[in-house]
């Protein structure tokens, strides 16, 4: 038996050299008469994570995975894939090309391409339906989520499943196939195609669900349909055409960008400077119970021990978990386990992490000290983290927006920053580092302040809040700036914007629309009135703000409102980058996508600017600067990038 083991940091990604080595090994094995069969396995913790995303941004190096799969499927000796850990993307293609598959029961197989705006390649769309039928194949490709090998839907994918290391079982199976002298190739399997009516029904059902959406999902359906309608070789060619088209699409480039950016954001200098310590005991000190409830719930859900200093917060958390049991979202033992880790009162020397959420209304509330070597940090409850030594902003709702911002002052201990970053990562949160005092109130506050100020300026010019919010949604934001201000609370927004307006030199009058709403008692969603009213059926323009307003051309000429909002965001991003408040430009895209639900398929506002062309954004800025120079007058960084033919992420046009 020949055992070929994929062994390359990180996660055995199918890099060009690894592919070339595997191709060489296969051809040498084919020529060696002493070897009767081949087993392909992965070293370390998994089989393979597939193609490294960075490779997709340049020419695809030879041998490509398609050629490897053909080499495996046409191999003159039986080939068995021994699978464990993660089997992702193109690695699934390798497994499908093998003549048999053995998996450890805990193996997780996934096709994440759709989450990157792409379709699976390497023959996956043609081979998978032949084994499993259209319905299961489409479920795997369209969900993008890993499925454990023991899932009943995968019973036709694997020849054998074992609780142990699959290598020995795979070698035994390979020997049996060699002794038998015959084996079936996946392309010749017909079981998944045996019921043409059911196959078409599955395709039609998914096509109806995706009606009008287009994009990668629709292309996956077309490719799986081709597996039934076209001869195998033509089906492979069709898949490759669709794959290459999607690979170069703006959507796929944007989603690859944000996927990689999220991983880069986690790379902080402090992680290399000091060892992270576990933070399992958390003390939440002070703060409004409604503001801290979802954060406290998150800590308890992930198994942290929690002490709170206000009875209101303790009662609110208990009520939340009781309600979850009543509604069937949590069982009673789960609630009791969580509440068993909750205590009221905070002791000195107990907590690994003390989060100071005091907002000045608690009087002289004692701030306990953490244990020796523990961490103390300021928690942003809405006013920002300006000037802190070490601070944390957990974007809310904490369970939905999986983003945190770590404010790091010059005197922050590297071990404290590393520990905080590691805790966030272990909780499944993406952390973005904000350098203080350069970041001011914070990165998110800085970006949204620019958006809010631009929106208020457009409203002063005659556009209604509804029209501005609709423009923001066309830009890529899930909620527009006026709805965002209402959700946050207009009093708090006004206080923060006053500071930002002063910093950028904005003159009097900018707050007019905001002050008018506050003068009428419209303080935001919490009181049912802001720029919108909030009846039970949902938000609607507030009385007096529901008129159509002035025509866009009267206010902005030829500039679309969404481009005016985009220009303000890009100018703010340039100010933040020039101040070195953030580690890298892509961190700001992560912040907007993760923290403010910016459309992931556009990659964030900076990536979107590169794709549109920074020159076009600059032209808008120069016109808009006549309205309000502090908001729109182009920052020197923008001028330099355009002058040098650059975008935020490389040469202009490269994005």
Automatic annotation (TrEMBL):
Alphabetic keyword roster: Isomerase, Lipid degradation, Lipid metabolism, Lyase, Multifunctional enzyme, Peroxisome
Domain of life, per lineage: Bacteria
Domain 3-hydroxyacyl-CoA dehydrogenase C-terminal: 447-534
Compartments where located: Peroxisome
CDD domains cross-referenced by the UniProt entry: crotonase-like
Main location: other
Family of the protein in this entry: Belongs to the enoyl-CoA hydratase/isomerase family.
Protein name in the entry: Fatty acid oxidation complex subunit alpha
Organism: Roseovarius gaetbuli
Gene designation per UniProt: fadJ_1
């Amino acid at each position: 038996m020949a055992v070929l083991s994929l062994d390359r940091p990180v996660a055995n990604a199918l890099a060009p050299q690894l592919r070339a080595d595997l191709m060489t090994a296969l051809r040498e094995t084919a020529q060696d008469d002493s070897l009767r069969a081949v087993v392909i396995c992965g070293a370390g913790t998994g089989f393979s994570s597939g193609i490294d995303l960075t490779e997709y941004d340049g020419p695809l190096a030879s041998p490509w995975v398609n050629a490897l799969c053909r080499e495996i499927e046409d191999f003159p000796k039986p080939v068995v894939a021994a699978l464990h850990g993660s089997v992702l993307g193109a690695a699934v293609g390798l497994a499908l090309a093998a003549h048999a598959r053995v998996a450890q029961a805990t193996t997780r197989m996934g096709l994440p391409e759709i989450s990157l705006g792409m379709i699976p390649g390497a023959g996956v769309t043609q081979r998978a339906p032949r084994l499993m039928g259209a319905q299961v194949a489409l479920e795997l490709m369209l969900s993008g989520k890993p499925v454990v090998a023991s899932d009943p839907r995968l019973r036709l994918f694997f020849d054998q499943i074992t609780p142990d290391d699959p290598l020995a079982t795979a070698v035994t199976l390979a020997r049996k196939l060699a002794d038998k002298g015959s084996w079936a190739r996946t392309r010749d399997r017909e079981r998944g195609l045996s019921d043409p009516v059911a196959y078409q029904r599955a395709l039609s059902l998914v096509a109806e669900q995706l009606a009008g959406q287009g994009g990668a999902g629709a292309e996956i359906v077309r490719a799986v349909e081709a597996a039934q309608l076209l001869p195998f070789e033509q089906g492979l060619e069709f898949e490759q055409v669709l794959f290459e088209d999607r690979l170069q699409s703006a959507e796929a480039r944007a989603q690859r960008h944000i996927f990689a950016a999220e991983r880069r954001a986690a790379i902080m200098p402090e992680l290399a400077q000091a060892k992270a310590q576990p933070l399992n005991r958390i003390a939440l000190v002070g703060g409004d119970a409604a503001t801290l409830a979802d954060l406290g719930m998150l800590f308890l859900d992930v198994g942290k021990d929690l002490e709170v200093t206000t009875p209101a917060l303790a009662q609110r958390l208990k009520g939340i978990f009781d309600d979850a049991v009543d509604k069937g979202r949590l069982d009673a033992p789960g609630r009791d386990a969580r509440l068993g880790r909750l205590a009221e009162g905070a002791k000195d020397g107990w907590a690994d992490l003390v989060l100071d959420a005091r907002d000045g209304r608690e009087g002289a509330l004692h701030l306990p000290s953490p244990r020796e070597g523990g961490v103390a940090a300021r928690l942003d409850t809405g006013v920002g983290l300006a000037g802190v030594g070490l601070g944390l902003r957990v974007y809310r709702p904490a369970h939905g927006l999986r983003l945190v911002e770590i404010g790091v002052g010059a005197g922050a201990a590297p071990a404290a920053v590393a520990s905080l970053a590691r805790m966030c990562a272990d909780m499944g949160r993406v952390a973005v580092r904000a350098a203080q005092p350069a970041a001011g109130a914070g990165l998110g506050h800085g970006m949204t302040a620019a958006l809010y100020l631009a929106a208020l300026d457009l409203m002063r010019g005659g556009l209604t809040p509804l029209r501005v919010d609709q423009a923001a949604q066309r830009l890529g934001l899930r909620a527009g700036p006026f709805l965002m201000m209402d959700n946050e609370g207009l009093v708090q927004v006004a206080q923060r914007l006053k500071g930002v307006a002063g910093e950028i030199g904005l003159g009097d009058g900018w707050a007019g629309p905001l002050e008018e709403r506050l003068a009428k008692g419209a303080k935001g969603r919490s009181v049912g009135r802001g720029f919108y009213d909030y009846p039970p059926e949902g938000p609607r323009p507030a009385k007096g703000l529901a008129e159509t307003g002035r025509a866009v051309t009267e206010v902005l000429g030829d500039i679309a409102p969404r481009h005016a909002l985009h220009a303000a965001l890009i100018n703010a991003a340039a100010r933040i980058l020039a101040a070195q408040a953030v580690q890298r430009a892509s961190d700001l895209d992560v912040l907007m996508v993760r923290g403010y639900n910016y459309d992931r398929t556009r990659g964030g506002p900076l990536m979107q600017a590169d794709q549109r062309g920074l020159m076009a954004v600059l032209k808008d800025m120069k016109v808009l600067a006549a309205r309000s120079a502090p908001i729109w007058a182009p920052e020197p960084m923008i001028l330099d990038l355009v002058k040098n033919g650059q975008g935020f992420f490389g040469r202009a046009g490269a994005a």
